[in-house]
Amino acid sequence: MTDDELKALVASLVVAQKITDKKIADLFIAQKATDEQINRNSNMLTEDLNRMGITLGSIEQDESDIAKEFFSQCLLKDNHLGSIHFDDMAKNMEKHRCQIQEEYHLVMSNADAIGIVEVRYKAHINDLDKLDRKMKHFKQLFPIYQNFKQYGAIASFHINDDAKEEALKRGYFVLQRSGDVVHTESSEHLRVL
């Protein structure tokens, strides 16, 4: 290879390197623009999901309110859990004492018994765990009822068979919507505290 050919080769390599560098720079610019677009889209998606979350939360709250209203109206008309008659009912009782804080959807009472009704639009087994906790805390939060028998119930528009079976096994009443009547079931071993 002659000196002129070598110089021409080096010059062409320098030109090729400049073209490659320019293409790499253009790719970096394009990548930066793509990253910015992805970030904008991600932020828009996050905002949309947040709005949907708020909407879904509102729907869940509406369903919960509907179920509470339905069961409270039904229990006002027929204030029984199984064969146990109650004289009165309170809705949405909240209490905070020391480190314990609970909200009770429906609380029914008579001269010697309390009925605690956990209301769900659609009940699951974990709702029974919440009811267990609320049952345990009730007399600590409301010591005036210390000597009362205490019954628990799960009320729901829908409860799957496993959750229903578990509720009965734990000694709770199960209240379900049945037309405009509440259908109540209990096992032979009711939980009385």
Question: First CA to last CA: what distance?
Answer: 103 Å
Structural class: alpha/beta
Mean pLDDT: 85
Report the total helices.
Answer: 3
User: What would CATH call the class of the domain at 70-185?
Assistant: Alpha Beta
In helices, the fraction of residues equals 40-55%
Shape: rod-shaped
Low-confidence stretches: none
Tell me about this structure:
The chain is an alpha/beta fold. It has a domain at 70-185: Trna Endonuclease, Chain: A, domain 1. 52% of the residues lie in helices and 30% in strands. The protein has helices at 3-77, 125-141, 161-169; strands at residues 80-81, 84-85, 88-97, 100-109, 113-123, 149-159, 173-178, 181-185. The strands form two sheets. Strands 3-4-5-6-7-8 form a six-stranded mixed beta sheet, sandwiched between helices. Strands 1-2 form a two-stranded antiparallel sheet. A hairpin with a 2-residue loop joins β1 and β2. The longest helix is centred in the first third of the chain and has 75 residues, at 3-77.
Defining traits:
alpha/beta; Trna Endonuclease, Chain: A, domain 1; two-stranded antiparallel ribbon; 52% helix
Helix and strand arrangement:
Layout: H1 3-77, E1 80-81, E2 84-85, E3 88-97, E4 100-109, E5 113-123, H2 125-141, E6 149-159, H3 161-169, E7 173-178, E8 181-185
Parallel strand pairs: 5-6, 6-7
Antiparallel strand pairs: 1-2, 3-4, 4-5, 7-8
Task: Give a short overview.
This protein has 3 helices and 8 strands. It has 193 residues and is an alpha/beta fold.
